Amino acid sequence: MKIHSTAIIHPKAVIGENVEIGPFSVIDQNVKIDEGSVIHNNVTVTGNTTIAKNNVIFPNSVIGAEPQDLKYYGEQSKLIIGSGNVIRESVTINTGTELGGGETLIGDNNLFMSCSHIAHDCIIDDNVLLANGVLLGGHIKVERHAKLMGLAGVQPFVTIGQHSYVGGLSRIVQDVPPYMIVEGNPAKVRKVNVIGLERSGFSQGDINAIKEAFKQLFRSETLNRNQILAELENQEDLIPEIKVLIEFFRNTDKGRFGRYRESLRSTLTNIS
């Protein structure tokens, strides 16, 4: 371990092998940091926070602070962070609340750029990118390989679908479908995220199938969404990506205000 002499480490904090902690950082008592992680200078890690292997946290970030939620009254809650994440300067990530099951969950290999904020009870899957100044309200789920560009703001209880792309300065108040580009204020689905899908190794055939589904879902002038989803379901050789789209829209339609997770608002268990 390389711990700077000015860092303040609570005696009950659990620090793994080969962890580096820089000058003036503060690690509180209920924190666990696994091996190989690097905590730069002036970082605060607090709350009931578990950080897995090989994460890098840059200066002035505050990780594991209490939820910024008027319904929070000091109950026990957690922040769990996976492996291989890069958390840049001045990022804030809060612990969970009772309504969301008491946990904020971060997966593996994510990049959170400077000044991004992840509020209470969010669930971030793997390989997600939050660009500078992205703001996530409470209870948001961001699925794998999603990318949100600078200063995008996301309403609580929204789901951001896998392999989607949210344009900078967008105001997101409804669920973002997988594989799509969404942007604007308020945001709208613009087209298929072709470049992102190509970079993730999708075949041209699968991309073409997603494009065709996009045309049916967002360009039809004669059929409503339920009719379109039924037609998609009845296609022969339905590829997994189209099944994902169908399930996503079905879930969104179960919710309120275009947000599936709104339908789970009254539960007091984990709503992952």
Polypeptide structure, described:
By secondary structure, the chain is of the alpha/beta class. It has 2 domains: 8-139, 3 Solenoid (UDP N-Acetylglucosamine Acyltransferase, domain 1), CATH 2.160.10; 197-269, Udp N-acetylglucosamine O-acyltransferase, Domain 2 (Up-down Bundle), CATH 1.20.1180. Helix content is 17%, strand content 27%. A hairpin with a 2-residue loop joins strand 27 and strand 28 (187-192).
Task: Kindly list the characteristics that best describe this protein.
2 domains, UDP N-Acetylglucosamine Acyltransferase, domain 1, 28 strands, alpha/beta, 272 residues, Udp N-acetylglucosamine O-acyltransferase, Domain 2
Shape: elongated
The residue-averaged pLDDT reads: 96
CATH homologous superfamily descriptor of the largest domain: Hexapeptide repeat proteins
The tally of strands reads 28
* SSE-based structural type: alpha/beta
By CATH reckoning, the class of the largest domain would read Mainly Beta
Number of helical regions: 4
Uncertain segments? none
The tally of structural domains comes to 2
- Supply Rg: 20 Å
Strand order in the largest sheet: 1-4-7-10-13-16-19-22-25-27-28
Question: Biggest sheet, open or closed, and with what strands and sense?
Answer: 11 strands, mixed
Strand content: 25-35%
In which range does the helix fraction lie? 10-25%
Organism: Candidatus Scalindua japonica
Protein name: Acyl-(Acyl-carrier-protein)-UDP-N-acetylglucosamine O-acyltransferase
Keywords: Acyltransferase, Lipid A biosynthesis, Lipid biosynthesis, Lipid metabolism, Transferase
GO cellular component, one term: membrane
